[in-house]
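ARCHIVE ENTRY
Sequence with per-residue tokens
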Amino acid sequence: MDITYTPYIDPEFELLIEKLHPPRVCVDNETHPDCTLVMVDSANKHGVLLEMVQVLTDLDLVISKSYISSDGGWLMDVFHVTDQQGSKLIDESLIHYIREAICTIRLVKMERRPSIRHVVARPKDVSAEHVAVEMTGMDRPGLMSEMSAVLAELGCHVSAAVAWTHKGRAACIIYVEGSEKDGVTMDPCRAAQVRAQLESVVEAHHHEDERRSVRLASPAPGRTHTERRLHQLMAADRDYDQCCLCCSGNSEWDGVNVYGGCRKERKKGRIGTHVKIQKCKETGYSIVTVRSRDRPKLLFDTVCALTDLQYVVQHAVISSRGSTAFQEYYITHKSGSTLETETEKRKVTKCLVAATERRVSHGLRLNICTKNRTGLLSDVTRVLRENGLSIKGAEIGVRGENAVGTFYVKDTTGEKVNPETLEIVRREIGGCMVIENVSPVATPSRTSGGGRRVMEERPRFSLGNLLWSQLEWLSSNFRPIKS
């Protein structure tokens, strides 16, 4: 009988390699006159590109270009970044944080400050002890209002929430803590009660065989990044199945295998999402090219989709021209294979199209800032529902004593929202509310001076904003950005 011996590899060997060759992060303000270069040189690992992009986008930095190379188990990535006003990064505390955060994600077991890796995974004022309510199901008017009403009735305090809708499906993550009696954490019996009542709400208008899910994620210090988790929830819900694909007739993209994009959007002259997949015989990689409208956090969303599909980005070039973003990825599967079958290509195409579309919001944007209190989310969403407005996206959190949120709403009848309705909503909600039209072709605006005054007139909330709200110089200049 033949006996086969396999070599023993110490599980600490990979950590030893990183100890001998620790990651190097260089922040260069000299090479280019109009941007800062963030250069990373490190041992490669699946998912590290996403984590690096996550660090930069959570700080609401603009990534105008990026060059990625990770052959041979080693990566050398370059990001061209600016702040929201298009200026270089000159604040030393911000530069130090970028260095520390990127090095920390590479040296998880050696990190000196464990909090760095996990701070950006949750909104500020949400601790690791908060329970995360995760929901996916059919999108319908009043769904978020009904869920928040149940939580308020049960005495649960909502600390933050993020919700997306796409192709008739909805996903949201709500961070909650128990009542004053329970404290921050929930005991298992109470958590089961909360879940049961939320399931009743979600199932109320679903057909018997329709997909839906309600889950309470237990408190955990290493909880998945909120926005990445939303991508995972919607992908598991198969929202990408509804994305439009076409296999012919694109004069600008010769040799296209498949590309995504809605015909209705193209007829209206809007920039759709186009995905081109080819095979490079010389290198053995699959080349995935994505052209879409530029918008905030686009790079994060695309890399997130590829990472969760278990593809490794070996090389990439990302740039933008005007309102259009161009991304070219040379990828292989984690197993080393390339995209060979049409089924694989179609799935990757659909998933990339869905990833770029989920965050895009339409309708009216309501920026709300008011004094925080228990049951506030329930009251705000009830006012929107009672006035015939459907929530298509939301991002809510706490800043000091105030609750700050952004709601994207549409009229449930499909008609244009009546100005009188908006005035009623403004009066009933109270606090400060700013109303903006959201154009699907408009590029994110930039602040041109007077940062503090603009911030007070147009309050904004984002997970990155909350993370750095304690730094006065940065919080006074937060605005929408491209990445």
User: Anything to note?
Assistant: The first helix runs from residue 13 to 20. DSSP finds 15 helices and 18 strands in the chain. Residues 108-122, 247-259, 265-269, 440-483 have pLDDT under 50 and may be disordered.
